[in-house]
Amino acid sequence: MKKNVWSRVLSALGLMLLLSTFVTFLFGNTQLVAAKALLGLAGIAAGLALSESGGARRFFTGRAAHFGFFTGVSALCVVALLGTANWLAYRRPHTWDLTKNQLFTLSEDTVRTLRGLPVEVSALAFYRQDEPDYPAAQDLLRRYAALSPRFTWRLVDPYRSPELVKQYGITDTGPRLVVTAQGAKGDARVRQPTEQELTNAVVKLTRGGEKKLYFVQGHGEPDPRDEGQKGYGVATRSLESEGIEVGTLVLLERAQVPADAAAVIVAGAKKPLLAPELKALQDYAARGGHLGVFLEPAVDAGLGPLLASFGVEADDDIVLDPSPVAQLFGGTALTPMVQPTQRHPITRDIAQTALAFPTTRSLVALTGARSAPTPLALSGRESWGETDLKGLFSTGAEQDEGEKRGPLPVAMAAARPPEAQDGRRSAEARLVVAGSSAFFANQYQQLLGNLDFFLNAASWLAEREDRITIRPKGREATTLFLTEAQVTMLKFLTIDVLPVSLLGLGLAVWLVRRGK
Amino acid sequence: MKGALAVARKELAVYFSTPLAWVVFMVVAFFAAQFFVGSLDAWRYLSLRAMEAQEPGVLERMNVTDLVVARVLGSTGVFVVVAAPFLSMRLIAEEKRARTFELLLTAPVRPFAIVLGKYLAALGVLTAALAIVAVFPGLLALFARGAQGGSGIEWATVATGFLGLFLLGAMALAVGMFVSSLTESVVVAALVSLLLLLALWVVTLFGVGAEGPVRELTLALSASEHLTPFLQGRIELKDLTYYLSFVALGLYLTDRAVEAQRWA
Description:
The complex is a heterodimer of chains A (516) and B (264). Chain A is of the alpha/beta class. Chain A has 16 helices and 21 strands. Chain A is elongated and about 115 Å long. With 264 residues, chain B is an all-alpha fold. Chain B has helices spanning 2-17, 19-52, 56-61, 64-88, 93-97, 101-105, 111-133, 135-141, 155-180, 186-202, 204-207, 213-221, 223-232, 237-263, and strands at residues 145-146, 234-236. The longest helix of chain B is centred in the first third of the chain and has 34 residues, at 19-52. Chain B starts with a helix and ends with a helix. Chain A: Keywords: Membrane, Transmembrane, Transmembrane helix.
């Protein structure tokens, strides 16, 4: 073969090797990249060396070479400039969020939390690139890091880093995002890469002193850890993700509320509490304790005197709402939709979101009590308090004379001024009472604003008013109901009429042009 | 600019008097319609099932812009990548093959005006193809209603989706035109640009299982990854910079390649 042909072949091979180093780089083997680049350069050099006499000289000194050289240099400069611009845009994310509900804009609470981070916080997210949560996690973490230099993050491929998976105890079904903070004990786990969970994890780690909330047990109350339909498992997990520890309390065993209780919840008691238990709760309230009472219909749990001391009484009725709109999410008049009021910190931020309150009693504010309770949620105008509970299922429900008409309060909050005890003044006692104990059970917690209402109430009781209330944002629901005829028409228009018209138009233009 | 517009007008006349633009329109319309009908059927099935199973939570989350329009636009992205090389293939290569390029270079317009004019013409055809796809959200808007009243279509989200598709098309045409400036064969120009664009579309496959800078690089290079935020209704600075960088680089390199003809 002629020297000139060898020269071209070697040059081409060298150039090919040099250009393909980029693809090799994507495989992550730097040694192979270096070897290919060297071989490529050697090939080009050999090609030039073998080129016809004076060819190499002409290549470097010819008129075209000048142009090629300057073009090459300027092209490299342009590439470097554009690369820098891209790198800067990547490092300093800026978003114009044009969605209707501002889906991709972090809430003010998150911005404030991140800008005021007292310590270094880091997040490790264990997702593979092909997992559905990967883009959401990456996007969220990147936006958090852009707000604070103290927030760092790393995405870890669980298959490639089994040692980290083992170290953090990551499982397929468990939380995959671990947040740690400098000086904090342990870490916080995030189940879904959402702003609500991630911010609360950061808050939990950076705000010292965990609060403990007790659920009273022993009278048929649902277990706070139960994951069944009637249990409170989801609500408990949500409390814990926000830094509130949850425990159970059997008052007969202890005779008094533990000193570390930030709040005590009595939810769904189906048997009356015994006298020593009631006394323990009353003593706790007298010491400035915080109580959450969530009642069952047709059950006298013996909590009347305790509620009365806060100026609240629960009626022996069940609120029924026959309005079809009010039954939209519950399906029956026994699960009315109730509207939160704007009068209390618990409901101020969720006043626009209705709640579904299954089998709820109505409440009454007593006059002359030491505290004036504030209604938290009211039933609809068409509702009433049905007192004939036995006849409810046998003869059906009808509003009788003497039964209270809606709107009826179904949840109330009250704060009692401090009492003097043994010469010492105690803290303010707090009470949240609701006529329903099922609204935050696993079966109903996801409906409307139910879970938010319960979490806000628990946070107020635990004196965590600064809890981050970030409602998960979503797009507005759309109604689109099409008849069969409309669907057929849409399909005909889009699959048939539109492309065929375009084809016809094109054909006509072509034929007219041919005819000229 | 005057020269560029004159070249663009001439090029547009060529596009619309030959079957090329019409075939692109028809193909985009036909396949977008298939995706539209498929997404609409999926929507109807999902809402029917949610109503039968009395799952109000599902109905509360169903949004037609997200579940139908964004899916149609996302699928149209693939056709933009496939159609662009066919629109750009003849821009320079055909002139070189027909030996009319030297003639064009003697015209009283600067080489960059020629490049820009041809590019704007191709972009015009692609914009017309995207306008056809806008028929689908328009049709849906006649029937969809928002839960809080008003239109069921989130027009701002639809607009950002189309902006994303337009930028993707602009990038694909710039790449295609540069390749077209390197060869005399329109077939080679189309195939090579299609290969390059498909590689940029699926480059994330290389990053699956990788970690650190390699994964970041594949994501940063991917044309499809940069389209996603637009389809969701947000404009990210990094995505704008990405597409516009390719447009700038493509036009610059084409200009250099055209200029090289004078020096060859």
